[in-house]
Amino acid sequence: MRIEQQPAYVLHARPYRETSLLLECLTRDHGRLGVVARGVRRERARLQRAQLEPFQPLAIDLMLRGELATLLGAEPAGLPLRLPGDAGLAGLYLNELVVRLTGRQDPHPPLYEAYAQTLPQLCMPAGLGWTLRRFERDLLDALGYGLQLSFDADSGESLDEDGDYLYRAEHGPVRCAPGTARALRGGDLLAFAQDRKPSAAGLAALRGMMREVIRFHLGGGELRAWRVLAGAVSRR
Amino acid sequence: MSSGSPLLADLIEALRCLPGVGGKSAQRMAFHLLERERERGLKLAAAMEQAMRRIGNCTRCRNFSEEPVCALCAGTGRDRHVLCVVESPTDLAAIEQATGYRGQYFVLLGRLSPLDGLGPDELGLAQLAERLGEGEIEEMIIATNPTVEGEATAHYLAQLARAGGVKPTRLAHGVPLGGELEFVDRGTLAHAFGSRQSLE
C-alpha cells in the first residue's frame, strides 16, 4: 500500500543494517509505524538525515508492506521545532510514552493531534508538569483507557470538591481517609477533567497518580525517561 | 556453504560479524586468507585474540584501554583543567585528529535515550560527577552529537557541571565549510542564524 504526504513525526531512530535507519513514526492516519529509511546514514545523505530527527513535523511518502514500511520521501511540514533544555528531555519522555503504549499500525488520529499540539507547548512557560499531565490524559483517552474523573467508583456519588480520593487504574477514584499518602483532592480531579490547571500540590499528586495508571497499562513496567527526568529535576 | 570443510564454513560465518560484510564478502576474505595470506591470517587471529581478551575500558575516561587507566589519562602532557565529553571512542578519535585539543576526555559510550534503554547509569554519569567533584576541572566541553538525543544529553551534562562548580561549554554548530546556504537543511540554518557572531 502506497501512502502519500502523510503527516508524521519521527519518535525514535535506530541504526539498521549498514547505512539505513529504522524509524518509529507517529502518523496521523496509520498510527505508529516502523519505517525503514534506506541509505540515510551515508555521508552524502546528511541533509535527509537531519530532517528525520524527532519533533519535526513532516509529510512522508511510504510503501507499506507487512510489518515495516519503506520511506520513499520526507519533507518538512512546518518550521523546525527546537526543544532546548528540559523541554528536550520532556520530549524524549513523550516519545517513549507513545512508543511503549501504542501498537504498530493502530491508528489514533486524536493522539496525533494531541502530540502535535503538545510539542510546541513544551517550550512555553506554562509549566512542563501541567503540559505533560494533559498529554498523558489525552493519550490514555485516545487509546481507550480514558480516566474516570467525575464520580466515586465505589459509591457512584459525584466527587466532593474537598474530599480525599485514591485513584485506582481501570476503576476510578475511591474515597479515602483524610491524610492518606498520595491522596488527591476531589477539586483537583475535577479541575483535571475540565482542563483547568490545579494547585501546585494537586499537580504533584496528579503526577503520582498518572505514573500509577501508566505503570498499570505498561503491565507493571517502568519508563526509562522517568529516571532521566528525575535526575535532571533533582539538580535544580 | 557446501565446501566440505566445516572449519571454512565457521570462518565465513564468523567474518560476517564485521560491519559491511555479508556472505559473499566473507567468503572472499576467507579464501583470500587461506590461499595467499596464511602468515598474516595467523597474525590477525593473534591480534584479534589479544585485543578481545585484554582491551577493557579506562576507569577514568571509559575509553578503550588495556590498562586500568589509559595513557591519555595517566600522561602528564595533557591539560587537567579541561574535560571534553564525547559519545563514543570514534568521536574522541575525530576530535584528536581534527583539533589541537590538549585536555582530557570522558566517553559516555552512548547518549541519553530512554527508548534504547540508555539512562544516566549506563552512561557512567555518577563517575563523571565524581570526577567533576575532584575540583581540578574548570571547563567541561560537551561534544555530544547535534541530534535530539545528543542535545538532551548535553543539557543534562550542563546541569551536572554547574552542580559541580564547573563551567560547561558546548560545540557550536553551523553551516559546513564550503557549503552553500541553499543546500543546508533548515534546522542547521535556523541554528546558525540564531547563534550568528559579531564581526567587530
Structure, described:
- The complex is a heterodimer of chains A (236) and B (200).
- By secondary structure, chain A is an alpha+beta fold.
- Chain A has two domains: 2-76, Beta Barrel (OB fold (Dihydrolipoamide Acetyltransferase, E2P)); 85-234, de novo design (two linked rop proteins).
- Helices cover 37% and strands 25% of the residues of chain A.
- In chain A, strands 1-2-3-5-4 form a five-stranded mixed β-barrel. Chain A has a three-stranded antiparallel beta sheet with strand order 7-6-8.
- In chain A, β1 and β2 form a beta hairpin.
- The radius of gyration of chain A is 20 Å and the shape is elongated.
- Chain A starts with a strand and ends with a helix.
- The model of chain A has no long low-confidence stretch (mean pLDDT 89).
- Chain B is an alpha/beta fold.
- Chain B has two domains: 6-54, Helicase, Ruva Protein, domain 3 (Orthogonal Bundle); 64-170, 3-Layer(aba) Sandwich (Dna Topoisomerase Vi A Subunit, Chain: A, domain 2).
- Chain B has eight helices and six strands; from the N terminus they run αααββαβαβαβαβα.
- Chain B has a four-stranded parallel beta sheet with strand order 4-3-5-6. Chain B has a two-stranded antiparallel sheet with strand order 1-2.
- In chain B, β1 (56-57) and β2 (64-65) form a beta hairpin.
- In chain B, α1 crosses α2.
- The model of chain B has no long low-confidence stretch (mean pLDDT 91).
- Classes of the chains: A alpha+beta (236), B alpha/beta (200).
